[in-house]
Amino acid sequence: MIVAVFNQAGGVGKTSLTRDLGFELHERGFKVLLVDGDAQGTLGAFFGEAPHERTASEMFWHEVCSAESNGPPVVHRSKFGPDLGLANRNLNADEISLTQQQDPARFLGVTEDLRRAYDVVLVDCPPKISEITVQILFGADAMLIPVQTEAKSVLSFSEVQIEVGKTQRRRRNMRLEPIRILGVVPTLYNQRLVLHRHHLQEIETKLCTALGYPTLPPIRDYIAVSEAGTHAKPLKSYAPKCPVIQDVAAVADALWGTTRSRFQEVANG
Ligand SMILES: Nc1ncnc2c1ncn2[C@@H]1O[C@H](COP(=O)(O)OP(=O)(O)OP(=O)(O)O)[C@@H](O)[C@H]1O
Ligand SMILES: [Mg+2]
To answer: If we measure between CA atoms, which residue out of 227, 156, 225, 214 comes closest to residue 190?
Structure first.
């Protein structure tokens, strides 16, 4: 299953969630690929891969976007377990090359191989609607939407809805199944704050119930999540006792069950 971790708003916890959910699923025995769809290269950096010191041809999107080649995308074995598809600033040039080709199905073209090789592919989207975002939303089977428990993020959810609508229309035109909304993950949640509890409720009722999207367990706000980034480790490896690990595990339980064999039972019907 290919899952786009999507919200065009910046800083809502997309990359941190991709890192920690990916690591959690790997620990449960899933075959996991984490793809960075952002030229900032944060996901690779969070795994200690120094993407900005690497060449364009080592990047996941290079083969996908290149006009000349049709090779498979490059993936790296991370020292923490999940495979990684890296991005760095070269993604901007790759994206221009993609726009010039006007081929909406480049990522879609490699997704069958990815589905065969991995149980779960999480694609960390950039905080904007770019050509790559459109490609990701074509190729993905499902979408996971982190929303910060803050007014700004809740208010800008209408923008997410607009993009979901556009995605479904594009997919219909391509005769693809609609993208499945796995759910909204409330992020950076501090349960001691009345304001955050208010926004959590708003996410559950005004956004999710109204739209028929599942609300997934919230991810609490703990400084160890940021520190893990600084130390270039998944949270569970950096701070195994941080309560956010339970939050991430609860999201994994809700989406895929507790073991890979259970997941496969469900996937195989
Ligand atoms: N649960 C959390 N607790 C504390 N800090 C967090 C948590 N999740 C994310 N952060 C911090 O918030 C900031 C934004 O997180 P992150 O980079 O994951 O968001 P993003 O949506 O991927 O951002 P961008 O839109 O720039 O790609 C980072 O500094 C990160 O360390
Ligand atoms: Mg990010």
So the answer is: 225
